[in-house]
Amino acid sequence: MIQIGIIGSGGYVAGELIRCLVYHPNVQLNFLYSTSQAGRKVAEIHEDLFSADNLVFTAVINPNVDVVFLCLGHGNSSKFLVENSFSDKTVIIDMSNDFRLDKDANFQGKDFVYGLVELNQSKIKKAKYIANPGCFATAIQLGLLPLAKAGLLNDDIHVNAITGSTGAGQSLRATSHFTWRNNNVSIYKAFKHQHLNEIGESILSLQKEFKQDINFIPVRGDFTRGIFASMYTKSEMSEEELMDLYSNFYQNNKFTFISNKTINLKQVVHTNNCLIQVQKIENKVLITSVIDNLLKGAAGQAIQNMNLIFGLEENTGLNLKASYH
Ligand SMILES: NC(=O)c1ccc[n+]([C@@H]2O[C@H](COP(=O)([O-])OP(=O)(O)OC[C@H]3O[C@@H](n4cnc5c(N)ncnc54)[C@H](OP(=O)(O)O)[C@@H]3O)[C@@H](O)[C@H]2O)c1
């Protein structure tokens, strides 16, 4: 069994990892490290895990585990790795944006590979250190990669993406308070969201001459989970050509699918899938991409990466069912 350690186990992404990993046939949860919950039963915090009564948060790390998932906020992963070390064989999969950009990818002599499977599958299979992509970044990149690979992003790109409240983590703040969030919508970090950097690097890795603007308007939505991203740019291709381009790009992919009809968020929430619709309207291509932020946008994608590194079927432990109604 692959021995797993989780850091930041009291948080939302860690909770989702635990939920998936207790049913993964090839792993054992070795330790669940938590600064705030050590000594308590996991089910006291992640209350739906009441049947996994044996799981307890700990303040002790086992440095010899096979995989450690860092589920900490930005800046805290690098700090944690400075203060704690793991064996040379330990695979580290980090959820924060500490190691995602080229300039940050080498840390303490560890080379982090950007863990977007649809972009970097062969590198991921050989990697020991993974920088798991951001949730918005995942939905948006999966919508743009086929056009970038074909060198067809030749005009400014306009993106609007709406996220559920779990995207902001478990700590309470004004915009996650029920009274504010319920029946409400608002924009934040317009044109400046930090995920633009990783999106830009991935596009440039496929389309070297790309220099257009990506105008991204992130939106807080009145729901708990999922990301609904729509993006458009000018295109000279027909809808049929675009559909062929996208279908061919993702044909060998286990989790990214192309739809020829209107898509909606509930088709993917609670799954590791990404669903994409491509439409040609007048002189523009409109791409809609939906994911679950906690799964394909975080914990599910991290398990997908782990499966590839350990030579397991990519979808092991990730055959999840949407809760459609
Ligand atoms: N939420 C999403 O949809 C999503 C999607 C993609 C990526 N991510 C990224 O994944 C990471 C975790 O996100 P999350 O939503 O799970 O956040 P979260 O719910 O806020 O959990 C983060 C955990 O980090 C620990 N922590 C908090 N402050 C700390 C500090 N100063 N030093 C060390 N540990 C601290 C806490 O765990 P303990 O009390 O148990 O130690 C906390 O529960 C973030 O980097 C986030 O950007 C999140």
UniProtKB/TrEMBL annotation:
Enzyme Commission no: 1.2.1.38
GO cellular component, one term: cytoplasm
Pathway(s) where this gene product acts: Amino-acid biosynthesis; L-arginine biosynthesis; N(2)-acetyl-L-ornithine from L-glutamate: step 3/4
Semialdehyde dehydrogenase NAD-binding domain location: 3-127
Keywords, ordered alphabetically: Amino-acid biosynthesis, Arginine biosynthesis, Cytoplasm, NADP, Oxidoreductase
Protein name, per record: N-acetyl-gamma-glutamyl-phosphate reductase
Family annotation (HAMAP family): ArgC_type1
Compartment(s) of residence: Cytoplasm
Family named by the database record: Belongs to the NAGSA dehydrogenase family. Type 1 subfamily.
Reactions catalysed, as given in the entry: N-acetyl-L-glutamate 5-semialdehyde + phosphate + NADP(+) = N-acetyl-L-glutamyl 5-phosphate + NADPH + H(+)
Pfam families xref list: Semialdhyde_dh, Semialdhyde_dhC_1
Keyword Protease: no
Biological process annotations from GO: L-arginine biosynthetic process
Record-linked SMART domains: Semialdhyde_dh (SM00859)
Function (record text): Catalyzes the NADPH-dependent reduction of N-acetyl-5-glutamyl phosphate to yield N-acetyl-L-glutamate 5-semialdehyde.
Keyword Amino-acid biosynthesis: yes
GO molecular function: N-acetyl-gamma-glutamyl-phosphate reductase activity; NAD binding; NADP+ binding
Gene: argC
Residues annotated as catalytic: C135
